[in-house]
Design goal:
EC 3.1.26.3 (chains A, B); homodimer; cytoplasm (chains A, B); RNase_III_dom (chains A, B); three-stranded antiparallel beta sheet; 225 residues; double-stranded RNA binding (chains A, B)
């Protein structure tokens, strides 16, 4: 068995069942009668609930739509890859030589799945309260700020960096329309780069619409390369 | 406050916080400073975990893909509408007169959302173990059999295979009648094979009626052999 002392120390948690943690760390490429996919299935639901509940209390005035958006920004492959890396999870994963040589230990999907599986294993042997504490500590340590603004800001920054490098200019955000009564307004925003429209998005605020349009533009520009 | 005695009895659960259960039963059309959408967000994640964990233990040999499929067949609007109806949840929902006159109390989405919200409320005040017990009892009572086959069997496809093999033709579905006001329509459908009517069924949509009629016809044809 791998030396998981360091992992236990980082997590502040001592695994009870050696069999279970080995299963959680076993990628399907490592031919065994078990792998971590079932635990990943469970861990995924555990994390969805933990993060959902955390946001429910953290944002008592936010509606369901915003809670869902913030959760989607935290609970996804990128987010879990980040948490997995923060505990050096890659080191502990069992995988085949082929997968190893193929850079498996650094793959976002593999890291994210193993992270979910480890959380699923902790849930199984120690229950929701214990895994909640561990997961929330990791999330808070790895996200400076948890809010709609901060989690979505990245796309505008990313887009600006991209367009400056490629076109030597910053993107322009144009409000195309605003609709609806004051308490339920919607804004439609377009991103313009070099006089060409790259994307549009509709949001409850200009900021949200800008961020979503920026996200689409980033994806388009990355495809164009 | 509505008389929720009967609801409490059906659920086998006594609500601790009157404020919370009222929130869980309040549709957004009922103008209040609160509605059940945040609790629905929470309840949705609670049910995902409860059902996921239940299937994890019930099917120790099933892989993640099959567990996901079975869960998707249980955890959806139709599934939760069924559970909501089984506890007569519609009776207890607070909604606007307009929504009421529009048949809101019978709407699948409204019933399903309120069911999730009630489960979210029970989770909040009594924790995962209590809500798990209640939810699993309801699910087991309302699904005769929980398996990939039984949840996914498409009777129209089965019937078509049967009739093609036996009669060299495909069954015809004939709408015999549609009844009721728009928001509460019912369809009566007959299955005709070789000019002979084999079965009839009534459903909330043509599709549902067709599936049920097909199921009866399949059973009849299998008996005829």
């Amino acid at each position: 068995m791998k030396n998981i002392e360091a992992l236990q120390k980082t997590l502040g948690y001592k695994f009870k069942s050696e069999k279970l943690i080995i299963e959680a760390l076993t990628h399907k490429s490592h031919k065994q009668p078990y792998d971590n996919e079932r635990l990943e299935f469970l861990g995924d639901a555990v994390l969805d609930l933990i993060v959902g509940e955390y946001l429910f209390f953290k944002f008592p005035k936010s509606d369901e739509g915003n809670l869902s958006k913030i959760r989607a920004a935290l609970v996804n492959e990128d987010g879990f890859e980040k948490l997995a890396r923060s505990i050096n999870l890659g080191e502990y994963i069992y995988l085949s030589n082929a997968e190893e040589n193929n850079g498996g230990r650094e793959k976002a999907s593999l890291l994210s799945n193993a992270f979910e599986a480890v959380m699923g294993a902790i849930y199984l042997e120690s229950g929701l309260d214990v895994v909640r504490k561990i997961a929330i500590e990791l999330i808070e340590r790895n996200h400076k700020e948890i809010s709609l603004d901060s989690l979505f800001r990245d796309f505008k920054t990313t887009l600006q960096e991209l367009t400056q490098a490629r076109f030597g200019e910053t993107p322009e955000y144009r409000v195309i329309a605003s609709r609806g009564p004051d308490h339920k307004k919607e804004f439609e925003v377009a991103v313009i780069i070099e006089n060409k429209e790259y994307a549009r998005a509709i949001g409850k605020s200009k900021k949200i619409a800008q961020q979503e349009a920026a996200e689409t533009a980033v994806k388009l520009l990355n495809k164009e390369i």
